[in-house]
Amino acid sequence: MKKCLLILSVVVIAFASCKKIEDFDPVKQAAEDDAAIKKYINVTNASAVKDSTSSLYYTIINPGTGPRPNINSTVTVTYVGKTIGGSVFDQSTTDAAFLLNRLILGWQIGLPKIGTGGEIILYVPSALGYGNVSAGPLGPNTVLIFDIKLSGIN
Predict the structure, then answer these.
(1) Please, are residues 119 and 62 in contact by the beta-carbon 8 Å criterion?
(2) Domain range summary for the chain, segments of one domain joined by +
(3) Which of 11, 15, 65, 82 shows the greatest Cβ crowding within 10 Å of its Cβ?
(4) Cβ atoms of residues 56 and 123 within 8 Å
(5) Is the pLDDT of residue 12 over 70?
(6) pLDDT in tens, 42-85
(7) What whole-number distance in Å separates Cα of residue 150 and Cα of residue 77?
(8) What is the Cα–Cα distance from 135 to 123, expressed in whole angstroms?
(9) CA-based Rg of the chain, rounded to a whole angstrom?
(10) Model-level pTM?
(11) Quick one: pLDDT at residue 22?
């Protein structure tokens, strides 16, 4: 009996000492992300527009030519991914191929806006990126910026 009480006490103390996880409010986070993106666009004088069907902002540097990718396309790209604070967290300086339907929603929405040879900057709110979880070096609710050149579509 003493052993059971000891184990129960340890479990209770362990749970009591855990930091309470705050409830996540997606509406509040979306508003914070939108404000951060608008501020970044304003400070950098970017000529970004907001997608009409989502919370993604983008700037088309070069629209490219030919057909545009769809959700089932394999896209070949070079890119730089950074946080809104400017820290580069991922990049490919040589062509990298990805199935578009396996990438974050921001890419799935943004890449079909350009054709082969096109260049786009995506301003990705956390809900269209990695959401409310950490991903590699990124913390939860991180707003992302991607400079992407679309080299090919299969």
Answers:
(1) yes
(2) 25-153
(3) 82
(4) yes
(5) no
(6) 999 999 999 999 999 999 999 999 899 999 999 999 999 999 99
(7) 5
(8) 17
(9) 20
(10) 0.85
(11) 65
The span from the CA of 98 to the CA of 96, in Å, is 7
Would you state the structure tokens that stand for residue 10, as one six-digit string?
């340890």
Q: Which residue has the tokens 């939860």?
A: 140
Read off the tokens for 112: 């079909």
Sequence length of the chain is 154
- Residue 15: predicted pLDDT: 40
If you search the block for the tokens 């799935």, which residue do you land on?
108
3-state per-residue secondary structure call for the chain: CHHHHHHHHHHHHHHHHCCCCCCCCHHHHHHHHHHHHHHHHHHHCCCCEECCCCCCEEEEEECCECCCCCCCCEEEEEEEEEECCCCEEEEEEEEEEEEHHHCCHHHHHHHHHCCECCEEEEEECHHHCCCCCCECCECCCCCEEEEEEEEEEC
Q: Which CATH class is domain 25-153?
A: alpha beta
Question: How does the average pLDDT of the chain come out, rounded?
Answer: 89
What is d(CA 129, CA 145) in angstroms, rounded to the nearest whole number? Answer: 10
